[in-house]
Amino acid sequence: MSPSILAQDPTLADFGRDPWWLVLGKIVFAFAFGLLATLLGVWFERRVVGYMQVRPGPNQVGPFGLLQTLADGLKMAFKEDILPKAADKVVYFFAPTISVICAVTALSVVPFGPMVSIAGHHTPLQVTDVPVAVLLLLACSSMGVYGIVLGGWASGSTYPLLGGLRSSAQMISYEVAMGLSIVAVFMTAGTMSTSGIVAAQGDGTQLTILGQQIPAPGWYAILLLPSFIIFFIATVGETNRAPFDLPEAESELVAGFMTEYSSLKFALFMLSEYVAMVTMSAVTTTLFLGGWRAPWPITIWEGANSGWWPMLWFFGKVIALVFVFVWLRGTLPRLRYDQFMRFGWKVLLPINLVWILVLSGLRSIEDWDTRGKMIAVGIPAGILLIATLFWPSRRPQPKPTTQEQVDSRPYGSFPLPPMDLQVPPSPRITRVVAEREPANIATGSDSREV
């Protein structure tokens, strides 16, 4: 990697020097990115799930149905806003706002690109950065639960309250796994700054393979594969997305914490979910997928990581992760609540702790922090983790035959149809024929006419 490309990495010293209008422009851009990504994310999800389920999806409003989300937003805006009589009016009003603000605020420390020149000012494509930026991301994710819990409590109804309680337990459980998976990133990068973590994933380290010098894979999704897998699973649980959408399980809780909301307040809750999905995809890209850095085939071009091109690579990675969110929703069934909590506390948490202990022990060995040795440990550990998560817990039992199923039914259960498919006559018709038989004999008519 050439020094000109490495010089594009921003540092903490590059922040805080921009004029006020440039800072305001970055804030507006981050906010517009969150809202626009949400509008397109709803359309994208409906189109992808429609394709998976062999149906068209939205295709009438605008080209390819692109304006369907805008039409749905206008529809919700003009619906009647119903306020429950038993609701706490102040908390009921501000709960959706808390969820949206926390989701959008996290985008302020996400790097969208390297250093660029805007109107003669050399500035990073990032609103701001601090030495503990990742802790700010975790704080925004943790504060988002207040909007859901308060919305469920302030509605003054049973089902929203149960949805809020489920959400609080769910988010607290999976925040632990999420925080522990980021510990491995801190240990490897040596910083909590988001721009520093992106720079650490592309420091130009070279590997010697068969006498050839090639760039070493620097993405932490490869070096820290177990942490990446656990972090992404935790983000799905943190954003209440299927198959972890227990707080709003419509088959059990009508609509969960949003049951009593309507009009724009309901739209804000839906907006917060999709903004959180896009935000966590951006955070995952920053921490594990090299941020705005181009993937390997594109890095052959020396200008791939300079100028405005890195924004394209960043948006491409975010869209790919959003597709995975949609893919999970379209393919996996919802878990039971006890299975979901057991998976977080008894599976993800112990594996995360063991992986951090192993990584700490290996890094204490002299000269162990080279990329080649980390790859030799991280990839097998990630494959072992995937095999552990998806390995069947019990041996499948052979399927019983039809006769065994019939014999195992208790006495008095609903009978099966005859095996020869000769359906017996209806009991009602048999009863009617028996009642009319004496009359038929007296008149000389045939009972088969019935």
TrEMBL record:
Regions crossing the membrane: 20-44, 90-112, 132-155, 176-198, 218-237, 266-288, 308-328, 340-362, 374-391
Segments of this protein annotated with the region Disordered: 395-424
Keywords on record: Cell membrane, Membrane, NAD, Quinone, Translocase, Transmembrane, Transmembrane helix, Ubiquinone
Gene Ontology cellular component terms for the protein in this record: plasma membrane
GO terms assigned for molecular function: NADH dehydrogenase activity; oxidoreductase activity, acting on NAD(P)H, quinone or similar compound as acceptor; quinone binding
Membrane-protein topology: Multi-pass membrane protein
Catalytic activity: a quinone + NADH + 5 H(+)(in) = a quinol + NAD(+) + 4 H(+)(out)
This enzyme's EC code(s): 7.1.1.-
Superkingdom of the source species: Bacteria
GO biological process, one term: aerobic respiration
Similarity comment text for this entry: Belongs to the complex I subunit 1 family.
Subunit structure: NDH-1 is composed of 14 different subunits. Subunits NuoA, H, J, K, L, M, N constitute the membrane sector of the complex.
Name of this protein: NADH-quinone oxidoreductase subunit H
Native source organism of the sequence: Micromonospora cremea
Lineage: Bacteria, Bacillati, Actinomycetota, Actinomycetes, Micromonosporales
